[in-house]
Each structure stands twice: as structure tokens, then as C-alpha cells.
Amino acid sequence: MSIVKLRVNGASHEVDVDPSTPLLYVLRNDLGLRGPRFGCGLGQCGVCTVIVDGVAVRSCLVPAAQLQGEITTLEGLAKDGVLDPLQQAWIDEQVPQCGYCHNGQIMTARALLDRNPNPSDAEIREGMEGALCRCMTYYRVQAAIKRVVRGADSSVAQVSE
Amino acid sequence: MSAGLQLPRNIEEALYRLNPSTSRRNFLRCSGALVLTVGVSTIPGAHALAVIGDLAGPYADPDYRQLDTWIVIHPDNTATFYVGKTDGGQGTGTAFRQLMCDELDIAYDHTSLVMGRTDTTPDQGGSGGSDALERDGWPMRRVAAEARRVLLQLGAEHFAVPVSQLTVSDAIISVAADPARRISYAQLVGGQRFNVELSGQNIDATTGVAKVKAVNELRVVGQPVPRYDIPAKVDGSLTWAVDKKLPGMVHARNVRPPVAGAKLRGIDESSVAALPGFIRVVSRGNYVAVICEREEQAIRAARELRVDWQAPASAPFPASDALFDYMRQATPTSVGTPEIQGDPDAAFAAAAQVISADYAVPFQGHTAIGPAHALADPSDGQMTIYSNDMKSYRLRTGVADFLGMPREQVRVVYMDGPQVYGRTAADDAGFEAAFLAREIGRPVRVQWTRAEETAWDTKGPAYAFTLRGALDADGKVLALEYDACAADYNHVGYNEPDTVLVAQLMGRRPARPAQGEAETPSVMYAIPNRRTTTRVVGLPLIWETPLRAGNLRDPNGPQVTFAFESFIDELAAAANADPVQFRLDMLAGSAEDGIHRRARSIAVVQAAAEAYGWDARPAPRTRLAAARDEDEILSGRGIAYTFRNNTVAAVIAEVEVNRQTGRVWTRRLVCAHDCGLVVNPVGLERTIECGMLHALSRALWEEVQFDTQQVTSVDWLSHPSLRHSDTPESIQVVLVNGDPNPDRPDLAPYGAGEGSHKPLIAAVANAIYDATGVRLRQPPFRRERVLAALRVAEV
Predict the structure, then answer these.
(1) B417–A98 CB contact, under 8 Å
(2) Architecture of domain A2-76
(3) Which of A40, A92, A97 to mutate to test the interface with B (most CBs of B within 10 A)?
């Protein structure tokens, strides 16, 4: 065990863990965060995604001790009590089913829009490719991202009754 | 007050604890009648809930025959509903509130809902079978209507006027002729018990005296109320079952046999005893787990533990490549009674044209995005399991049996978790956590790994089919033979203490394996001569196998409908008929049933075709001169239809097939869907969409692969799933009400969790045929399989 220093959602933390401990377990079990979740431990599904200095990172793989930058988790996206536009779009579009993977969906989308604020449909698909959802909410995830990028009218909802 | 007329005990405790100055005795003695001043402070539902989580056992069964078990009116004139269901993310919880709000006459925003806690909510069985609204919504509606009736009666006594002179809106009762005379529900019974007994032979039949409202009186039902659970799921504030922590909690990881059927010979505990945080290795039979103080320590210890296993003498199963040959040759474990209509042999003999085809569907897994997990707390001689088990009540009963504990000492607290399309009906982790917690006397959290979940979760049964059809000279279907063989022997039940994986590994067995089933098609077609035969086969290894057949979303429907509706398309092509018209012709000649499935089937097929803009022509499109070109991309459309219990659905898929790569992209999906009364159109549309896409993943990607020793599908590379790039460009849902009397006052809601899932694979296969002229008879339609078929057909 050794002292690992982390900056998470604007606050500094020191935790006493084995330095090889993946960031995910420190965030969840030492800092009590609930956004990043375990999905595969292999970096394949994105459920554990956090943003480190603007880059989407799979927290199940990276050792906590290796991180120097500012870590943002799902809990840290809201600013001054106002949800991130993506989070709001997720509510407006009623995106999740079970919702378990949506930390990965939202954090991956946030990092995508941070580097490309106006992605094309193809760029959205490409940028989100690594974020798996087993309830298959992909269509609504993409709709919610388009909502943020292009406004509510771009929502793909097509329902006739 | 008669014995047993109590609030749910823990809620009563909660109310009492929140305001100890209220005499518990007086509180209990409140009759519920004319109590205008309530001696308890305002109790937000959430606060009360936070308290009840801490209560010690034993835990009596909530009595479904008591109105107080279902509904509590709080002093702030809000209400909490307690229902014995779970919501896997299809929005059923929101729909339950809508149904109950309408019957109780209370604003949606003034209510909350508690689900699936065995100590708090009456046992409605949790979720499964898409029966949330179809079956379980009814007792909820009736008890809410009864609560309204009782409140109106109290109001009538209060104002000394007949009930007929009262009106009620948003939980306020007023005198119709003098609206200034008004009283709230809370003033009548806030924070107190109704003390009203209900009747009904079982929980599904629970009822009071009041009747439910007619459909045209419903106001909240039919509205696109946003799901209450979504905000906390997107801002990170929800406490999921994976998040639950307790003081002194430790972490366990399982160590599975490296090959199926291996026997434990020995464990070298010294290989991990010196690792940091190590607590214990626990083993019994072939079940092995490692427990450590911290999660990453348990992961490491499970990896480094040296275990000596003896491989079985014979192969536990054929390799997945040889599965269907094995199934077709295996001696059945059971054979269904053949169903014969008309004289199929004579019809085939007289046919102008006979075609036949074999189909196959592999084992497909749940492969939940979050592997199995649970936390069990053995404190105070009780056992509390925090779990995302969709059938939490059966987990309680199963664990009590498994551990030999009285049911009253076991409870399950249902919390949100990853998708529950049948996987958590056999909640392996819940049993394991409870076992380990009792072994070491501390709260234990069990978390399965990705490889463990993908390899060892329950599987939808593999099927092999043979279909044969006879057409007359006019292209009408004279006869159809359907033969289905399912690898479904020893299909695991719901949280059974002798079939969950840990019980199997410990050597516990039921008296005999479950028989399993091979299902028959669900269509309303008029086919005069039919022969339907079914059989079930088992794999060589029955127990302790990673190929455990279990319920996966509509357990047999996607397989059966894939084969049957593909073959109907083959018949249409042989008859040179348009696939939509071919189906409509067969529906036109069928007899109606008690729930108008014939009329509703015709309505959904027509609605899907209309929404898609279907132009009538035979498939494949390659028959058209215009399609005979050198395009890299071939496009086509396909339809499939079925019913799932009382719900009918038709799906049209439009695909693009890449000739060079074999990639299939489903560009567009249309689903016409009739599930009767629509409680929440947005929740319903999302469920229908995702049901289709889940089946699209099964159509394009999913197959459990194995060699003759073990499952080799262990992660998202070896077991691919649908991804963002596979998503259709357009999904259109058409909500159909095909009832001949669409305004009927008693229109019922039917299940929607599986209806759109069921026909999708067939629709995609039919679209690929339309695009290419190549018939794919075995999903998944991965590009290498598609490309090989295109090459053979020289497309």
C-alpha cells in the first residue's frame, strides 16, 4: 500500500492503496463514486469511462497511481447544479433502458463533443463505437447527442399513432 | 381492529421512528376513520424509505389482502405505492404509478413507488414474461380504486353528504354543490392505516369493492410521463445494487473450473495466504471462492490461487461448429405430442409444389453489460441480500432453502442493475453472496468477471428446425410441417436452490432435471393441413455446465419465429407472391379468437406495410432487371409477423448487404405493434425500439461458441454485440389499436417487453434474401457467413 494522490471532480484526495489498483476501484470503493461502473475489466465496453484532462479513459485498466491529471466522473459533469447538456438531453430523449452502461455512453459522448463540437452522424457513430449497450439504446443515444449538437428538432423520433 | 390489520410492519416502524413522540400504540389503534388531526409530521416517502432499510428482522410477508400493504397516504397528501414488481428499464414502474394515480385520483408528481423488496412489497413475483401491465397492473388498479372508494366514504361521513354529491381531484375531496367544503386525503388518513381488508384467491386476483375506471375516464394513463428513474441514472446519484456498501463488507471472487465438468482435487491455499487483504478460501464440492478485504485484492487472489482440477473423462459437449449435427442425431429427452390438423400427407401428395428447408439458431447468451453481483449481510442472525434480481421473491425463498434458514429471516432488497431479460431470474451471485456471508459472518459482496458472465450465464436454447410446405397450383399454402428440436433439457428455473450454479457445483440436484420445451409458432395463419412435431435434447454434460438453458427474452420466440417466418417467406417466393399480401391472404382465412388476434394481426401487418411504403412485388429484388447491376451494396426489405401472448407485432427491416465484405447494415426498421391499451406511449416506443435492436444483435452478432471442453466466448471480442455503427438510420414505431371496437371501455394493456423482439431476426433474414436472393438459415449473419453464402450463390 502507498499513498496515491488524485484530483477528482475538482477536489484533491489521498488514498492508501496498492499503487497498481485500477482507478475504477479507488473511485468506487475509496471515494464512493457511483458513475463509473464495472463492465468488463478489459477496456472493451466503456462502462467504467472517466474523463482525464479531456480524454475518455477506461478506469478499469489504468492504475490509479499513474494518473496525474484532473479526473472528471459522471458526478462531476453538472456545473453549479445545472446538468451537462448531454445529461439533460438524455432525460429529454428518455434514452436509457436499464441505464447501467450510460455512464460510458455519456462520458464517451462528452469527450467526443469536447474534441469535435459538431460531429456528423458518421462521426457520432465512429466516436461512440466503443461504448457498448446491451439494452441496445444506441438509436436514442445518437438522438440525444444530435439534440445537443443541432437542437431538439434534430431528434430522430419518428412515431406515428 | 382485527389481528393482522397493520401497515407493512417496517413502514409503521419507520413512521414511528420518525416521530417517536407519537404513541406507537395510539398510532396502531387509529381506525383510519375521521382522524382530522394527525399526530405525525410530514413524512417524505424517501425519508421513510431510508429508515426502513435499516430495520432488523424477522421479516413477515407483506399481506396482499390489506390495502395498507399497497398504498400509504402521507400527511403531506402524497402517496407511496408498494408493488411486488421490478423494472428492468422498460419504464414499468412509471406505468404502474400512472395506472394507480388514475384510479386513486392523485397527481402523478405526488406519488412514489417502491418495488421488489420482499420485506416491504407484496409478492407479485417480480418481473418476467412481459406481464407487468398485462397481469400485475390489474391488482394495482383495483386496490387504488378501492382506496379512492374508502376515502370518498370517509369524506361523505365527514361532510355528512352522500358519496354521490362529492367530487375528487388530485387527492382533494370536495362537495360538488359547495366546492369550498373540501378535505384532503391526508386529512382523512394521512400517516395512518386504512384498515381495509381486500379479497382475492391469490395476489393477481386482489380486489376491493370498487370497480376500476373505464378507459375514457383515465387521464394519466396514455400520457408520455417521463420515467422517474432516468434522472438519477444520468447524473450519477442513483445507488445501484453494485454500489451498496455496508460496514465490515468484504469482497469475493469465484474461481471456476477451467474446463466444463472438472472436479476439484485440491486447493493450495498457501498460494494466496500471504497476499494483502486475504481472508479465506471457501470451497464446497466444486465451488471455490476467494474472499479478501478489498476488491482488487480479491481479483488478484482469485487469479493467483492454485487449484488442482481433474478434467472429465469424456467431452461435456460437442464443439459449437458440430452442435446442430449433434442435436439432429441425439436421442430426445422428451418428445412433444404431435399436433395434426387436416390430412397433411394427402395434401403433400396432391401439391403442385413442395419445398423444405432446415434452419438453426445457436445458443445465445444474456451477456449482461454488468456481470452478476450481489451483497449479502448476515447481521443479527438474518440474511439480507441486496440484489438486482428481477424475481427477488423467489431469491428469498430459494436462499432460505439453500441455507436452511427460515424464510422470515431472509429478505431481498431489490435495487437497479444491468439488464434483466431473464438472467437474474437465476441469480447465481445472490446465492453465492448469501452462502459466503454466512460462512464468514461478515457482509460479502460477490462480483463475477466478464469472462465468467459471458461463459457461465444462462443461455437461450439452441434450436434446429425442419420445415416443409405444400403449395397448390394457385400458390396457396395447402400444408405445412414444422419440426423443432431444442437443446433445452435441464432448463433452469427461477432461483431454485438446487439448480443455481453454486448449488450445482456443490453437488445439489433436484429429483430430476427440468424437461425443457421446444416451442411452436405463434401466428394466426389459416393453413388447412398441418403437422407440428417437437422434441428436446440434452448435451452430454447436464450439470455444472456453462451451457445452462434458461430464459432469455422471449425464451423460444426469436428462434421459432426466425425459422417459421423465414419459411413463410420461402413459400411466398415459391408462389411468386408479395410477402405482405401472402401473409394477409393467410390471415384473412383464419378464425377470430377471443382477443381479436386475427383482426389485430391483419391491422399490424397492414400498418407496418403502410408506414414503410411497401410496394407489392415478389422477393427477391434481384428478379428485377434494375437490380441486376454491379452495385457494391444490395438493398432489400423483409417482413415478419407474430404474436407474443396477447400482443401482436409486425416488423419490416430494410437492409444493405455489402457484396465485397458481407456486412449487413439494417438501415431502417418499422414496427407496427398492438398491445391494447397504451399506458405510456414514450416508454412503450423505447421498449419496442430496444426490443428490436436487442434482436438485431442476436441476428447479426450473437452466438455462444465453445470447443469440446469449454465456452470460448468470454469477452466482447470473442462474443461481439451490436454497436453504434450497426444502429439503423431510422426506426419507426406505429402503435396500433386493431381491436374491432377500439373505444371499448375495458380495453386492456398487454405486454410489450418481447413482442417486437420476437419477429426481428426473421425480418432481417427475409430482407437479406430480398436484397441478394440468398436465403440465410442460421443466425448470426456475421459478415464471414454472409460473404461465404454470397460467394456460393455467385452474387
Answers:
(1) yes
(2) Roll (3.10)
(3) A97
